[in-house]
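The material for today's practical consists of a large collection of protein records. There is nothing in a record beyond a sequence line and a structure line. Backbone structure tokens are a discrete shorthand for how the chain folds in space. Nothing more is needed to start thinking about how sequence determines fold. As an example, a complete record with its sequence and its structure tokens follows.
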Amino acid sequence: KKGNVNVVHYVHLVEAELAVLEGKNERAEESYKSAVSVATRNGFTHDRALSHELMSEYFSVIKGDDYWKDYHLDNAIQSYVDWGATVKVEQLKRKKEMGK
């Protein structure tokens, strides 16, 4: 957890995805939040975006929670905007319009 700051957020993200697969939802949410926090703190905008995007999918598919799905999708979109990933932004905006 105290390793290279360039990869710590990836560790949290992988832990979150593994927790989802194992049905450990509380652990998944904690790990997603940690991934977002560490990526933000260390200036990894694209990884913050990916973390929010995956967290949005988690809340959509696993929890069925539209509020948090949209919240994290909006944050993913904004993070991709900040990073300059215009094609990805358009993809996620279309996804949001379709309600997925």
Residues 45-63 form the longest helix (19 residues). The radius of gyration is 13 Å. The mean pLDDT is 94.
